[in-house]
Amino acid sequence: MLEDINSPEDLKKLNIEEKNKLAQEIREYILQVVSENGGHLASNLGVVELTLAIHSVLDMPKDKVVWDVGHQSYVHKIITGRKEQFKTLRKLDGLSGFPKINESEYDSFNTGHSSTSISAALGMARARDLKGENNQVLAVIGDGALTGGMALEALNDAGFSKTKMTVILNDNEMSISKNIGGLNMFLSKLRTKKLYKKSNISLKKILTKIPVIGKPLVRIIQRIKRSIKQLIIPKMFFEDIGFTYLGPVDGHNIEQLENILKLSKELDKPVLVHVLTKKGKGYKIAEENPDKYHATAPFDIETGKPKKEKKADYSKIFGEKLVELANKNDKIVAVTASMRDGTGLTKFQQKFPERFFDIGIAEQHCLTMAAGMAKEGMIPVVPIYSSFYQRAYDQVIHDIAIQNLPVVMCVDRAGIVGADGETHQGTLDMAFFRLVPNLTIMAPKDFKELEDMLEFAINLNKPVVIRYPRGGEDNNIKFEKHPKIELGKVEILKEGNDISIIAIGNKVAKAIQLAENYKEDGINAEVINARFLKPLDEETIGKSIEKTGKVITIEDGTKINGLATAVKELIVDECLENVEMMEYAYPDEFIKHGTVEELEKIYCPCPNGKFLFGHERRK
Ligand SMILES: Cc1ncc(C[n+]2csc(CCOP(=O)(O)OP(=O)(O)O)c2C)c(N)n1
Question: Does 187 sit in the ligand 1 pocket, CB within 6 Å?
Answer without folding.
Answer: no
